[in-house]
Prior knowledge:
The strands form 2 sheets. This protein has a two-stranded antiparallel sheet with strand order 1-2. Helix 5 packs antiparallel against helix 7 (185-206) and helix 8 (215-233) packs antiparallel against helix 9. By secondary structure, it is mainly alpha-helical. It has 9 helices and 4 strands.
Amino acid sequence: MNRNIVLGVLLTLFSIIIGSSNLLPNHLVYAHNFSITDDSALLTLIEQIKAETELVNEYFIANNSISANEHAKNAANLTNGLNDKLRQNRVADITQTYTNGLYNSTTLAIVVANLVDEILRNYSSAYGITYDLTNMSNMMMAIMSNNNSSSSPIDMRNDAGNTTISSHGGHASMPEKNNAVLVNVYNYQTAQVLSNVVNKLFNDKLSVQASVNEKVSIDNLEQSIKDLKYSIDNKLRAEGLMEIVHMRIHPVLQSVYDLKLIVR
Length: 264
């Protein structure tokens, strides 16, 4: 993927959304405390563009022009952000940078962490949640927001030094279905497709780059990523998603792939 291809994608997307100028604001800041490298930021944007373009294609084929248009706007905006990054970092060969990133375990782990944050952001926007799901300190707020409704117990245990949730029937015991009203279906669609992207990146690229000594942690991480997708697909409550991300995905990514934290 070179600059001409990127610009070609942008022009194609603009041809779909011609007449519409209400693009979303750039979203290049990540709320967790992992140190973001230039390469990981580029890869994250590329994966987001690919995901939104996939949704454009899906809904265009399904004759759902409204959804196709919304996701085309998202893809175009993200492409603008990518072009800005390419100019700022003077990247000579984006294809090589992308390929190298896929086979650098630390870079790819940061990308997965970034995309998981984007899943939380889009899920939050989909349900009009006013607090930041990517901020771990808001987990209690998420629980309190549902304190008038019963939820399934979360069965915590410690497995090889990692806090996990015991699984029943292949999925962890998680809160009940979300009672909130879906206010933005397009953000929900993005959360869904990004959960597919994270699953594929982890299974196809990232998991095999871990040390053989990390098998238990990798197995736990694989299950946690599956549980996140399951939670999105089944529209489970926000506190369930936050618990999976902040207690089961991010800590294991940090430990296995040696991610560095930044002090704020």
